[in-house]
Amino acid sequence: MSIAHQRKKQPEAVRQQLLEAAASLCLEKGAGSLTLDAVAAAAGVSKGGLLHHFPNKAALLDGLLDDLMERLDAAIREAMRSDPEPHGRYTRAYLQACFVPGGMAEEGRWKAMTMALLGEPNLRRRWRRWVEEQSVLHAGTDASIDCELVRFAVDGLWLGSVLESHAMPPERARMLARRLTELSYS
Amino acid sequence: MSIAHQRKKQPEAVRQQLLEAAASLCLEKGAGSLTLDAVAAAAGVSKGGLLHHFPNKAALLDGLLDDLMERLDAAIREAMRSDPEPHGRYTRAYLQACFVPGGMAEEGRWKAMTMALLGEPNLRRRWRRWVEEQSVLHAGTDASIDCELVRFAVDGLWLGSVLESHAMPPERARMLARRLTELSYS
DNA sequence: GAAAACATACCGTCTGGACGGTTTTATTGC
DNA sequence: GCAATAAAACCGTCCAGACGGTATGTTTTC
Question: What's the CA gap between B139 and B148, in Å, rounded?
Answer without folding.
Answer: 10
